[in-house]
Amino acid sequence: MSTVMAIVDNGKVWMGADSYATTKGGERRRMKCTKIFTNGPYLIGYIGSVRTGQVLRPEYFIAPKKVHGFPDKLITHFEKKKCLAVDPETQCSVFESNLLIATHEGRLYEILVDFQMNEIEDFTSIGSGSNFALGSLYTTRDWSSPKKRILTALKVAAIYDMSTGPPFIVEEFLED
Predict the structure, then answer these.
(1) How far is CA 98 from CA 8, 71, 125, 141, in A?
(2) How many angstroms separate the CA atoms of 67 and 37, rounded?
(3) For residue 37, what are the β-bridge partners?
(4) Residues 77, 83: Cα–Cα separation, whole Å
(5) H/E stretch holding 8
(6) pTM here?
(7) Mean pLDDT throughout 139-146?
(8) How many CA atoms lie within 13 A of 50 on its CB side?
(9) What count of other Cβ atoms lies within 10 Å of the Cβ of residue 54?
(10) CA of 154: how far to CAs of 50, 67, 168, 169, in Å?
(11) Is residue 176 pLDDT above 70, yes or no?
């Protein structure tokens, strides 16, 4: 896994990510591709399967016009790309990733493996280092620099989570 996080601050969304991937056998690999990228009017961050990030890039996936259209469009796209699994307990389609989606209006959403979509008011983190990152983001909530908060949280996650590591990337998503 890895760690991706975002902060909503003064009408902007800041998103940060590490650069490690972990194999099913637990080996760490540095990734050259970033876990944060722009697709249409959205900044997308992901954890989980590297394939998720590959098939969500703009050259393969046309993002929906309205953010609430993401879950259904993702299901259709991942079915077409044969990237979905079926949860044996619920018999529902799932994918091996979680997403963070930022809009130019300064709104932040997360989409979890079962395609439920939640709006985030202040900050969140996904991935194997997310609990450490969330603790750091909470304790630094009075800091004035979102970028510094994210970099600090990524460093904390990298200390305690073997699947999180540098280099760290932070993006600010501004209004068009």
Answers:
(1) 18, 12, 10, 24
(2) 16
(3) 44
(4) 9
(5) strand 3-9
(6) 0.92
(7) 97
(8) 14
(9) 15
(10) 19, 27, 7, 9
(11) no
Q: How many separate domains does the chain show?
A: 1
Q: pLDDT at residue 101 above 80? A: yes
Smallest CA-to-CA distance from 28 within 50, 7, 6 is with 50
The pLDDT tens digits for 38-80 are 999 999 999 988 888 899 999 999 999 999 999 999 999 988 8
Nearest in space to 161 (alpha carbons), one of 26, 7, 6: 26
Phi and psi at residue 69, to the nearest 5°: -85, -5
Exposure string (b/e) for 130-166, b if CB count within 10 Å is 16 or more? bebbbebbeebeeeeebeebbbbbbbbbbeebebbbe
What is the per-residue pLDDT for 117?
97
Three-state helix/strand/coil letters over 58-113: CCCCCCCCCHHHHHHHHHHHHHHCCCCEECCCCCCEECCEEEEEEECCCCEEEECC
78/13 Cα distance (integer angstroms): 26
CA distance 28 to 163: 6
CATH of the domain at 138: 3.60.20.10
Task: Name the residue range of residue 158's domain.
Answer: 3-173
